[in-house]
Amino acid sequence: MKIIADENLAFTDYFFAEFGEISHRPGRTLTAQDLHDTEALLVRSVTKVNAELIQHSKLRFVGSATIGTDHLDIAALEQQQIRWSNAAGCNAQAVAEYVITALLHVRPALLEAGQQFCLGIIGLGNVGSRLAVMAELLGWKVVAYDPLVQRESVQQLALADVLAQADAISIHVPLTKTGPYPTYHLFNAETLAQMKPDAILINSARGPVVAEQALMTDIQQTGRAVVLDVFEHEPEISAELLHLVTLVTPHIAGYSLEGKARGTQLIYAAFCEVFGQVAHKRFENQLPPCSDYFSGQPLKAALQQHLPQMYDIAADDAKLRACLKDGKVDQQAFDHLRKTYPLRREWAAHGGPAA
After folding, report:
1. Which residue from 36, 51, 278, 321 has the fewest beta carbons nearer than 10 Å?
2. Pick from 262, 259, 270: nearest CA to 40
3. pTM metric for this prediction
4. Mean predicted lDDT score pLDDT of the chain
5. What is the pLDDT of residue 339?
6. What is the reported pLDDT for 354?
7. Is a pLDDT exceeding 90 seen at residue 118?
8. SS3 196
9. What is the C-alpha to C-alpha distance for residues 212 and 338, in angstroms, rounded to an integer?
10. At residue 113, what are phi and psi to the nearest 5 degrees?
11. How confident is the model over 187-206, as a mean pLDDT?
12. E strands of 7-134, at which residues?
């Protein structure tokens, strides 16, 4: 069997080498010719798996080691009877920890703010639900908006009420343009104006959920602190946007070693089901040990002392800003940052809590 895998997938050989020949390719530049005699395709979000890519292939399976599916043309896959799978929830813990790290970097005093700080979460899927648990461990007040999901453990309000009450808004929705609750440009001039002027905005979901031009205007008017891990026109990111945003990272919120490995394991399990194999491998025995930062001290004390060692988010910001060239981020440099990213470990690997 011939398998093509994005070169940035973790543990691909460990999970798939026994099934056939694996060709590791840059996911952004895959062509239909590359898939000519391929039966299985393993991708990330940078590969647009559409009718043009798959129409003349022999594909039987497409696995995406990602939470989102907006890069998959599911109708085209199903029309050609190609089985597909994503990795829902694989890096939810990593993204939740990213959001908390970003908030504490932007405003360190939030570590001791308790109920006086209100975190608004937009979307209560795998990531939003994990973030709510982690925020409550820090003593923060949490309110959320999700018209499609009900969580008894989280106070859910109308979108306008969340925007009006929250001291920070964190976005965790898929990108959708149709249906009763489309998320494309959910954050536009109108919704941004409903937020407190000093409320932090964090987007680690999908770039086009936030209208870029409206966001830049809002920042210029309010001085709002904004954290972006994703961008509307990614990988094209303008110097103007970078200069306005408080903290930027190159679409790596979910880039923990555990999250990457978990994503590959999930599509491995789906692959095995499609091809009649037994899924007997797990990622945990492939992970190296790491320093214990949490045992023997309270959560807040451990974060205050060791958070920069666990994840130096300022370094990611500096590296992305260094990619500016001729008024915008260089696409090759952006992809290189992601390809060579030093995968961080989740808090549980350091002896800490997990949602």
Report:
1. 278
2. 270
3. 0.89
4. 96
5. 87
6. 81
7. yes
8. coil
9. 22
10. -75, -25
11. 98
12. 21-25, 40-43, 61-64, 83-85, 118-122
